[in-house]
UniProtKB/TrEMBL annotation:
Gene3D superfamilies: Electron Transport, Fmn-binding Protein, Chain A
Residue ranges annotated for the Pyridoxamine 5'-phosphate oxidase N-terminal domain, each copy included: 37-153
Domain of life assignment: Bacteria
Protein name (record): Pyridoxamine 5'-phosphate oxidase N-terminal domain-containing protein
Pfam families in the cross-refs: PNPOx_N
Length: 207
């Protein structure tokens, strides 16, 4: 008979459920960007940034050409903040709680890289110019003091089939951004017009 408590409430109960932690899972975590981990970050064109603030938790995408996150030194990452939806949820959170976490993904690679630390928002003109793309500087640059770095095993990516060939959007049978906006506003938002104009607007405001 299964006697596992539901829900779990203690670390001891959790450890009993999961079993012992493997030595590899412990050895892989360090407090700085090792040269081998640096190669991983420099190859990544995409990351997820997690923050926490008064309004709760936030996880949002960051992406650009590989190497968009710069390893300034073994304890410092630089992450440019480019144009998005201007909600600035991550930045607002960092103003009150500097703790951040990053998950770096490299297409075709099952393992991911996890980095955590604390961030501050930099706006020095020379720093922004350093990260300019197509003549346009980022709004700011996150300077992240690294506290923990380690790779995550490939099982989640393998189970998801994430890097398998993606079907055309038309075959996914999922709502478009405009359809979602129209539904959430009970038809008060011109969803069809939004979808029609979105590709050109994204291309024009990519940087």
């Amino acid at each position: 008979m299964d006697t596992t408590p539901d829900p779990l409430h203690t670390a001891a109960q959790l450890q009993a459920l999961l079993g012992p932690t493997s030595p590899a899972a412990l050895h892989k975590e360090i407090d700085h960007v090792h040269p081998l981990y640096r190669r991983w970050i420099e190859a990544a064109p995409f990351a997820v940034l997690a923050t926490s603030g008064p309004g709760g938790l936030d996880a949002s995408p960051r992406g650009d050409a590989p190497g968009f996150a710069v390893v300034e030194d073994a304890k410092t990452l630089l992450l440019p903040e480019r144009r998005g939806n201007q909600r600035a949820d991550s930045l607002r959170n960092i103003l009150t709680d500097p703790r951040v976490a990053l998950l770096f993904l490299v297409p075709g690679l099952g393992e991911t890289l996890r980095v955590s630390g604390s961030a501050r928002i930099r706006t020095a003109p020379d720093l922004l110019t350093r990260f300019a793309v197509q003549g346009k500087r980022p709004f700011c640059v996150l300077e992240i003091a690294v506290q923990s770095v380690y790779f995550q095993c490939a099982r989640a990516i393998q189970r998801s089939g994430l890097w398998q060939t993606a079907p055309p959007r038309a075959q996914l049978d999922l709502p478009t951004p405009g359809a979602i906006l129209s539904a959430l506003t009970q038809g008060g938002f011109d969803g069809a017009g939004y979808d029609r104009e979105l590709p050109a607007r994204q291309r024009a405001t990519l940087y």
